[in-house]
Recover the amino acids of this structure.
């Protein structure tokens, strides 16, 4: 479980970006985090990872997100960055996937076996020996997901996983996200993707929770979305 209780955060004193957030995410849930630019989505993910200080309580599996627990908290969370180039820094896809595993003490043989398992699950076996600077943007996004999945986190955090992808690669990424059994928290402006992959939506507006409920209900509420500077998903626009 992820639990936020009365969580607030400010980059500048007196100008809070997150304001008294209260919510919980249960194991196995797929939750979309939506909101206009500046609503606090990426900030919330950084607070959850312990990258930003906060007021209130943030817990991951009953571990308080604070300095002495960060190593264990981060083993339970895997973040897929919006910019895959910021995440993929080793020469090949396989080396990127094994880097974290080796640093957590896994043998090279075990790390390569785990890498092969994840690539096979995602249908990406052909990427194993490919160089990161020679694969497409969509392939790199999938490789970034594979890199995090290899670490076997309880929860996958994703920041705009379909941004800047062409329609084919966008669909590949969506299908891969849907295939994952991990708990998922996905921050995105792509509301059609959120509708495809998430059963629940948390809508942030001005740093507060404007709505929290079934994705199919919130994403059909034109008045609610437009009052928070969002538009209906394309499938609901008529």
């Amino acid at each position: 479980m992820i639990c936020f209780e009365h969580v607030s955060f400010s980059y500048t004193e007196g100008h809070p970006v997150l304001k008294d957030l209260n919510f919980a995410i249960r194991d196995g849930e797929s939750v979309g985090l939506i909101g206009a630019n500046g609503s606090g989505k990426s900030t919330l993910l950084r607070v959850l990872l312990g990258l930003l200080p906060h007021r209130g309580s943030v817990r991951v599996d009953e571990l308080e997100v604070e300095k002495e627990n960060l190593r264990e908290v981060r083993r339970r969370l895997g973040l897929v960055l919006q910019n895959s180039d910021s995440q993929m820094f080793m020469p090949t896809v396989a080396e990127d996937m094994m880097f974290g595993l080796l640093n957590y003490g896994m043998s090279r043989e075990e790390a390569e076996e785990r890498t092969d398992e994840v690539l096979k699950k995602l249908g990406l076996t052909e990427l194993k020996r490919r160089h990161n600077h020679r694969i497409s943007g969509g392939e790199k996004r999938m490789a970034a997901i594979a890199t995090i999945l290899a670490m076997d986190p309880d929860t996958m955090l994703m920041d705009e996983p379909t941004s800047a992808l062409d329609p084919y690669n966008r669909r590949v990424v969506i299908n891969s996200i849907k295939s994952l059994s991990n708990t998922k928290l996905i921050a995105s402006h792509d509301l059609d993707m959120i509708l495809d992959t998430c059963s629940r939506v948390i809508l942030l507006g001005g740093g507060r929770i404007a709505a929290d409920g079934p994705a199919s209900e919130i994403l059909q509420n034109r008045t609610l979305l437009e009052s928070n500077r969002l538009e209906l998903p394309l499938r609901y626009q008529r």
